[in-house]
Specification:
- The longest helix has 18 residues.
- The protein folds into 2 domains: about 60 residues, no CATH class; about 70 residues, no CATH class.
- The chain is elongated and about 80 Å long.
- The protein has a two-stranded antiparallel ribbon with strand order 1-2.
- Helix 4 crosses helix 5.
- The protein is mainly alpha-helical.
């Protein structure tokens, strides 16, 4: 499956666009959602705004869902799937830890999660045992006195 580069605008219009790679499956979900919104307005005297919110209850897409609506929806979905122990925070922590374990730079992983890298490093990076062991060995090698000085 290929990847596409999509420009997402976060926050107010004065902020800089943030570019984020999105897989084709996710783009299909967004396209399906937009098609559903267009069908919803078919035959009405309402048109979707050109820059509409993809997830909106307003017919023209002018207002986004409130964040709490998404949280509640995911909460109900978790309950149906018997995954009440799973939270957005744990998913973010997993993504950050897994991404770094795969060798991606902490700054890149944090930006993907929508965080300032310095903040994400303090709060969302899990302890990956193998990476920690390798770091300990690297630091030890730097600090050890060469045998020829004995």
């Amino acid at each position: 499956m290929g990847n596409s580069l999509v420009a997402l605008v976060l926050g107010d219009p004065d902020e800089q666009d943030r570019r984020l790679a999105v897989d084709d499956r996710s783009l299909r979900v967004v396209a399906d959602q937009l098609e559903m919104m267009e069908r919803r307005t078919a035959g009405l005297s309402v048109e979707l705004m050109a820059d509409c919110f993809v997830f909106s209850d307003s017919l023209d897409g002018s207002t986004p869902w409130r964040p709490m609506m998404v949280t509640r929806y995911v909460g109900r979905l978790r309950s149906r799937l018997d995954l009440d122990h799973l939270s957005f925070k744990s998913l973010r922590r997993f993504m950050d830890t897994y991404g770094q374990d795969l060798g991606f730079a902490p700054a890149q992983v944090a930006l993907r999660a929508g965080h300032d890298p310095a903040v994400a490093a303090r709060f969302y990076t899990g302890n990956v045992a193998e990476a920690d062991r390798q770091l300990a060995e690297a630091v030890s090698a730097l600090l050890s006195i060469p045998e020829m000085l004995d």
